[in-house]
Design a protein that fits this description.
The protein is of the alpha+beta class. The protein is 51% helix and 10% strand. The chain has helices spanning 31-41, 67-71, 91-111, 113-117, 125-147, 160-180, 200-227, 249-265, 268-296; strands spanning 2-8, 21-25, 50-54, 78-84, 88-90, 155-157. The strands form 2 sheets. It has a 4-stranded mixed β-sheet with strand order 2-1-4-3. A two-stranded antiparallel sheet has the order 5-6. Belongs to the steroid 5-alpha reductase family.
Amino acid sequence: MVQVTISAVSKTPSSRGGFPYTVDVAQEAAVGDVKAVIYAKFPKFKPTRQRITLKGEKKPLVEETKLSDVLGAPQNGWELQVKDLGPQISWRTVFLVEYAGPLLIHPLFYYFPKVWYGQDVQHSALQTYIFAFVMLHFTKRELETVFVHRFSSATMPWFNIVKNSSHYHLLSGVLLAADVYRPKFSATSTYIIGTVRSNDKFLWICAGLWAFAELSNLHTHLTVRALRPAGSRKRGIPYGYGFNLVSFPNYFFETLAWSVICVMTGSVGALIFTVVAAGQMAIWAIKKHKNYKKEFGKEYPRGRKAMIPFIL
């Protein structure tokens, strides 16, 4: 057995000031075992709230990490730090709530236009296409959350659900719906009548491009899922369709799908949401791309960009 001294980085309300805390663990113990010991001592300090780090460092240690691998052979015992991350909520729940917003908001604007615009709206084919695209997109996202995605982190701080959901509920929900279902885009509008936006061939071509982007996005998610066995945090280098050019083709294909909607409609609401979403995905892609290269080194394909082929 080895003595491990655990100190608190900051105040830990769940533990009521019981740190530093010393406990005996087996030499082959992992970080997850330490979390379990802390939880046994302080029942309100759940493992999902704990961030374990080496003393003086900020990078969290994953639960599978063996203490001997990061702390070496015990001399006078080991030292670790713990930080209380606060109340947590599962990433899966967060995703489900995020995507539920547009699924509830768009039907309200589409089926009850008189409530929002003070008049009935005879929907154009364009509006019907956009409504179908949005409902299919977010239904797909909900199903992927339940059946496809495997999360490297189980939880996140619960208050972040408000920030994360506002992006979808307000921008792709209220803003987009209020704009594209208004009378300007209706079947009787001069913005639609006699223009390319009422042309069946144009609408079908756009629908085909949108479907291509959505199915490609799904394919990349399935590729990533296959790299991580259930219940593990294992990471591998993805290859194949889309990944030969960029590290995160899922972001590229999603941006392409929303760009199609922007071209179809000329909607300011669609443009705002697409620009904001693409910007955020670019930030994520660049950060994760750097992490890939750092983790896999020379093994990682040198020619790949982060998100947009040959550009970014």
